[in-house]
Structure formats: C-alpha cells, structure tokens
Amino acid sequence: MKRSGATSPEGAPRSRGPALAAPRLLGAAFVAGLVLLWQAASLAGVLKPFYFPPPSRLALAFWELAWEGFPEGVRIGTHILITLARIGQGYLLAVGVAIPLGILIGRSSVLDRLSLPIITFARSVATLSLLPLVIVWFGVGELSKVLLIAYGCFWVMLTNVIAGVKYIDPLLIRAAQTLDTSPAGIFVRVVLPAALPRMFAGARVALGVGFMVIVGAEMIGTIQGLGALIMEARTYYRTDISVVGMVAIGLFGFGISVGLERLERVLLPWHRGLESVRR
Amino acid sequence: MAKIEIRGVTKRYESEDAAQGLAVENVSLTIEDNEFVTLVGRSGCGKTTLLNIIAGLVEPTGGEVLVNGRRVTGPGGGKGMVFQQHALFPWLTAIQNVEFGCKSRGMPPAERRGSAAQLIELVGLRGSEEKYPGELSGGMQQRVAIARALALDPEILLMDEPFGALDELTRIEMQGELLRVWSTRKKTVVFVTHSITEALMLSDRIVVLSARPGRIRQECAIDLPRPRERANPRVIALYEEIWRNLS
Q1: What number of other Cβ atoms are within 10 A of residue A149's Cβ?
Q2: Does B87 touch chain A (CB under 8 A)?
C-alpha cells in the first residue's frame, strides 16, 4: 500500500461525488440514445420489426403481458415472482452448502487436492447438459428447476470460498499467533474475515449464473416464469414477447447485482477503503 | 540472568542445494534485560529467520532459545512482534487492531479499549483510532503495528525491519519515535535491519551477521547517549568498521 491512501477526511467524499455521478448520467444517456436509434432504424425500415422488435412494439407487448398475460392469464408479475422465487431458492441452497463446504476444503490441503479435479470437471459441465438427467431423477416439477439453478451457482461459489480461505496472507496468521491468539480464535477472527471479500465476489458471480441458467431450467414442464415465457413466445413467433422476457431478466439481474455491491460496501467498509487506495 | 539466550541455533530449510538450504549456522548470543540489540546483515543472511526463531514462529533445526531461562516452544507469551509489512488486520480499525491481543487474552472490552487508547496516544495517532489500515500512510501503519505489539505489555519486542518499507524521512522520524516509546516502556528489543545507520542510531549493541549462512561476525557495544548524532565521529568510525565486516 502506498502512502497516497492518506486522503484528507474532508477532501475525499466531496471529490468522489461528482466524479461518480457524471459517468452514471453518461451511461443512462448512452442507453437512452441506443433505444432511440433502435426505434428510428425500425421506423426507417432498416431493422425488420419481426427480427428486431422496436421499443414501441416492446412497450405494447409489455402492456399485453401486464393486463392479459401471456400465455393468456399468466401476467408479467406472476412470471417475475415465480422466476425470482426459483432463482432465490436455488441460489440460497447453493450458497448455503458452498460456504461451509468451501471453508472445510480450503482449510484442509488433503481435501483440497482430492476435490480439485472433481470441481474443475463439474464446473466445465454446462448446467443445461444435466437437464435430461435431472428430469429422469427428479421429474419435471419445481425441484428439478431449483436444483439446476443451484448446480450452476454452486461451483462458482465453492471455488471462491475455497480460494478465499486458502490464499490468506500467512503474515496475518503469524501476527495473530504473536498476539496470543488460539487456533480457534485465528480461524474466527482472521481466516473468516480475510476470506469475506472473496466470498462476496463469488456470491455476486454465482447470482449472475443463476440468472443465466434460469431460461434453461424453465424449459421443463412449466408455462410460468420469465424463462418459460421466452420459450413459450417462440412457439407463437412472438419475438416481441421474448425480448420483453429477456429485458426483464437483464434488468433484475442488473438490479440485484448492484444491490449486492451496495450491501458489500456497507458490510465491508474497509475493503472499499483498500480499493480506493489501489486505484 | 540473561533475558534471551540463543544457544547454538542452526536452521536448515529443505533444499536441493545444501549450501542454499542452510540459513543460520551455530549462532549463540545472550541478550540482557532491557537491552536494545540490533541484528545487521545483508539481505538473505538469515537475520529474519533468527528473529522468527526467537519469536517461536520458526523451529530451529539445531540448538535452542531460552527466554527467562525457559525454552521457547511457540509464539506469543510475552514476545511482541512488529513485521516489515505492517501485517495489520485490514478489516479492523486502528484501535481494534491494537485491541486484538487483549481480546485474545479475554480482557473485558472497557479495559482493553482504555489501554488501547493510551497506546494510540503514545504512538501519536490520536484522532485516527477509527481509521482502517488502508486509510493510513505507511508510517502511521507501523505506528499502529508498534502499538499493537505493545498492547500485551510484552517483556520482549521483536522487530523485523519495521521501517524498511518507509521512505528515508519517515524512517528517521520513526526511529526517533521508537526511542521515545522505548524510553517510556522499557523492553528488551531485538531489532533486525540492513541499515547500518539505523542500527547505530538505535542500539546498545550491534550484532553483525555474515552472508548466508548467517553466523555472527562481529559484536559491538555502543555506549553513546541517545539521541545520537549521525555526524558524531565515533558513529562514523563504527559505520566504517561495520561496513568493512559486511563486505
């Protein structure tokens, strides 16, 4: 760490404010510009509406989804709630198992060596290729969908938890030892907090994976959920509806990711401090 | 009785090349109570290894270290340590870092907060208690690290090139600070450095180690009063003598 970290307490927040607000505004303006351009290209006949449904058409499709539903009776709110519930369950299951297991593996070099090939192998198996097996094992009900999402999230989270626990600065452990700290105390007061940032990073990436896997998971035996909506729209050649489904997934994925980032900043204030020093 | 007794300590690391693997060879040294001893040597001469052995962080291959006549078997227990990289816990504020050891010992919160606040004051960091290490400058980080090591009121303070990563001016300032702190809380100090000047400014006795494997090449007592002048003719003469022994 360089000494530039010693920012004056008054100077830092003031200079941070506008510096952050400007790119955010710029980003929003850029997106709005793209949407306008898309609409204009469609009006001018450059983009065919069936292949690239223009924003105006998407708005109409959204309206239809909001009032009549698609397929009829299943409104957008239901799709969203069902999808979020599935992702939430699969994600929590994955994280809930990956954290204790990852800590165990990361602390034991034997377990680490034993599990490495399995983890590398399992990570490279695309979640969706498990679909046929999962259906045979667990049927076409909710459990299969939740388990598929959990599988996708699990490996990313697991590798990050293991790395977080494993790659700890040995100096910190030595420092704690010279301060009369017991092995249990070192685990709770040094190993775990030192691993937290990495775990948070894993939790963020894993959530993204959950949103990526959802469309595949909802291909099985359901007409409810944003993934099902997208697949269902395909059968009716309703590209506008599937794009609305895509946009909804994208927006929620984005929103939740930003939320987690905020949460991390509140829970790990010291880590933000480190990053601002490095920048 | 001597405070620290190093008896024929040898440390060999596992290595293909036997000469490379030998870090410290047959070092014997006695350090008195409240003495400030500096180990000087080239990079990689095993002085840090020797310090880690005294700290109980590294086990010697041969020989033993006695503190108060009892064999060292592990870290802690009255041996405080300051590392070259500050080794502060980045998720704890300055004062929480200082409190760390007291918490390990189960001291009640109010009591340990009070003593930590005193130490923060002693190292001149009042007002920065709630800052995280990442928000402090290099010199301030080492001040916290010194306060943290002092918090358990150790009889022995082991310092491994604590100012090595600091710029020259901060370094000189920190040397003065260390002497000031040391004068208020008398400790036996074992200080590792590769700066001859730093050793001359600080110590009662300088132990010069040869290049790898580390063996004691020279010991010299410095009886000049502190604070010492860099330009003092005796300091300059000693500098030359130590330099000759190192090269």
Answers
A1: 30
A2: yes
